[in-house]
Amino acid sequence: MTRSAIALSRIDKKYGVTSVLRSVELDIEEGEFLTLVGPSGCGKSTLLRVIAGLEMQDSGNVFIAGRPVDHLRPKLRDIAMVFQSYALYPHMTVEDNMTMPLLMRRMSFVRRFPGVGRWMPGSRRIREDIATEIRAVADQLQIGGLLSRKPAQLSGGQRQRVALGRAMVRRPYAFLMDEPLSNLDARLRVEMRAELADLHRRLEATFIYVTHDQVEAMTMSRRIAVMMDGEIVQLGTPEEVYNDPQDLRVARFIGSPPINVLPGKVTSAGTLSVFTADFGYRVSADGPCRVQVGVRPEDVEITEFRIGLIETGGLQGRLRHLENLGNEYVAYVDVDFEGDQWTVVSRFPPRELHRIGSPGAPVGVFLNEDKLFVFSEAGGRLSASAPTKSSIGRAS
Ligand code: ADP
Ligand code: MG
Predict the structure, then answer these.
(1) Do 211 and 35 meet the contact criterion of CB atoms below 8 Å apart?
(2) Can you say whether residue 204 is alpha, beta or left, with left for phi > 0 and alpha for psi between -120 and 50 degrees?
(3) What is the pLDDT of residue 387?
(4) What per-residue confidence (pLDDT) applies to 389?
């Protein structure tokens, strides 16, 4: 059985009157790599600081390796934090920066003292052991050649590696990483993502990785926790969060280009319409009512306009703009509905370009009837079952 490495039970935290964490529950398995993702200001850093003991929660409990740690100072929680700002000592070499945490732990104050400490029995041995360990970690991170440099002589990526190395030499029980890559340029960030995932496999330690970047979150770990306004609103694999969002905020946050959110209605018979198109969905809501229907850009099909389109379940729109991203196209289509203009976004591979016509032209819009997410006006996901047999026509 897997044991939980870090467990949070009903964590609440306020700054003044502002609730920053609301009843956060989370259970991270030993050795797991969990990504915590959410927009800026949603409480991610605060949550990490509570776990590390740098901040005290107002109520609720933190457990590490099965033990309550609420009374323990940060040092005693056996956890390393890695920040976006590298927090290296600028006047020390890379080697000294990495040595410091071990020196503090293994040598008494007197032993660390220059001059006196050097001559105490055993000091040399301790320093040699530390140097060996530093070299091993440095090699693992490919910074072995940089040990005698100062932080100012390093690139951003190298500094981040040193910061990581300094955390690693302590062999902590868990690593908490707060947007560690956000100061790096886009290319390096992609490289470092893969390296961190690889490092996690080799270290077999528990990682909590915080980011506001949904692409990063989708690519790094087996499970992600999506946080909004101080709450964890969904926890699951990247696929679950993308394909089965439980909350409109999650649906909007994950995915690029973002999901379409379109006006829908549930009839008194419990069936769904989106714009003017009827779908055979059964929605568990007391109809008639308005709903918000989410559909991902890849589940929207654009065709040339033709007679009979509406009868086959299509909508009429006008192609406003087409973006060529190389490996795919993104089309922006205006749809008029009840006096408002809506934009529907579609993405598709270049081989489908011939269907579409040129900007300004009338087009047909087909929503994939199996891929509609129905949300209440308040944004909660409603259970809706897609029609078993196609009850509306499809674009061909
Ligand atoms: P994130 O890391 O997701 O961007 P934070 O945890 O840093 O979010 O902040 C969450 C909220 O708490 C924000 O609204 C922020 O302004 C507020 N906050 C964070 N730290 C403090 C503090 N020390 N005093 C008052 N408000 C704070
Ligand atoms: Mg933060």
Answers:
(1) yes
(2) left
(3) 74
(4) 56
User: pTM higher than 0.85, yes or no?
Assistant: yes
DSSP assignment letter at 151: G
pLDDT, averaged in runs of 10, over the chain (396 residues): 87 96 97 96 97 97 96 93 83 92 75 67 81 89 91 90 89 93 86 88 92 92 95 96 97 96 92 90 87 97 89 91 95 94 96 87 92 95 78 45
User: Minimum-distance ligand to the CA of 47?
Assistant: 1
- Nearest-angstrom CA–CA distance, 234 and 238: 10
H-run or E-run covering 21? strand 18-29
Instruction: Scan for tokens 């280009």, then name that residue.
Output: 257
Residues 6 or more apart whose Cβ sits within 8 Å of residue 136: none
C-alpha 98 chain-centroid distance? 29
Q: At what angle do helices 94-106 and 123-140 cross, to 10 degrees?
A: 130
The strand pair at 223-228 and 33-37 is best described as: parallel
Q: Which residues pair with 290 in a beta bridge?
A: 265
Q: Which of 19, 37, 45, 232 to mutate to test the pocket of ligand 1 (most atoms within 8 A of CB)?
A: 45
- Distant-in-sequence contacts of 90-93, Cβ < 8 A, 24+ apart: 90/150, 90/151, 90/152, 91/150, 92/150, 92/151, 93/147, 93/148, 93/149, 93/150
Long-range contacts of 43-46 (CB under 8 A, 24+ apart): 43/13, 43/227, 43/229, 43/230, 44/178, 44/210, 44/212, 44/227, 45/178, 45/210, 46/13, 46/20, 46/21
Q: How far is CA 294 from CA 106, 109, 249, 277, in A?
A: 56, 61, 11, 14
CA 80 to mean position of chain CA atoms: 20
Give the residues surrounding ligand 1 with Cβ less than 6 Å away: 15, 20, 38, 40-46
Judge contact between 379 and 335, C-beta under 8 A. Answer: no
- Sign of the Cα torsion 33, 87, 76, 164 reads positive
Gap from CA of 341 to ligand 1 centroid (Å): 37
Atom 21, ligand 1: residue with shortest CA distance: 15
Token digits for 119? 């001559």
